[in-house]
Amino acid sequence: MTPKPDQPNSTAQLCEARVAGAQGGFCRNEAKSGSRYCDIHDYRQPFVAALYVETGGAYFGIEGVDPWDEKRDARLYAGPYPVVAHPPCKAWSRMGQCRPELVRGEDGGDAGCFEAALIAVREYGGVLEHPALSRAWKHFGLPKPAANGWAQVFNDDGYSCEIDQAWYGHPANKRTWLYVYGIEPPALRFGRAPFTGRTVRNDGGGGRDQRSITPPEFRDVLIAMARSAYDMNEEAAA
Predict the structure, then answer these.
(1) CATH 1.10.3210 holds for 46-237
(2) C-alpha span between 130 and 85 (Å, rounded)
(3) What does the domain layout of the chain look like in residue ranges?
(4) For burial by CB atoms within 10 Å, which of 19, 81, 157, 186 has the most?
(5) 14: part of which helix (H) or strand (E)?
(6) CA distances from 77 to 127, 146, 155, 166, 206 (A)
(7) What is the pLDDT of residues 171-215, one digit of tens each?
(8) Whole-angstrom Cα distance, residue 209 to residue 207?
(9) For 121, phi and psi rounded to 5 degrees?
């Protein structure tokens, strides 16, 4: 069970915190208190950070979600919340190896975004999402996802799986790999979803924007997974 945050102690502080949250998506008062809960806002949900997300996209305007878009530069994220991470995938895709400008250096050509996302997931708990067959998995030694369920290797406390986002409302059959850390891997809809008539290459004319969308149902599943890190922390502390 999550603890109930304290009640507002003054109108002035409450207004200041609301302004801070509206301007930067972060509550100053919470930062000062060092708590994962704001001692002014009466949030019904524990906070999570959504990293590498689209400005104004699916993670904006969600209670208890601190969205980090390109402007905020999620590589700079330093806690304290569990995360849902969607690092850029172009440099790690199957076709990325055909573009030399994307594969130079140890970071795979993504300016360190995937590595920073992986560090954040392992430090604060949560889930990282990337397209299936992402070359980042092999590069960073992550567990190879199983066809139906979660996979783990002996030298990594995290788990990986593959899901089809069509199970969660995506208009295309979009195979996706997940890596979780610091949470109990949940039961998901594994295996291939029935064919929708669209793929990420043939999406009915929606283009890249449609292919890269995060369906609300899938977003909510990922947020719930990240929030479950709080339960694991409380069990470990008990």
Answers:
(1) no
(2) 9
(3) 1-44, 46-237
(4) 81
(5) helix 11-24
(6) 15, 30, 26, 30, 32
(7) 999 999 999 999 999 999 999 999 998 877 665 445 555 667 899
(8) 6
(9) -65, -40
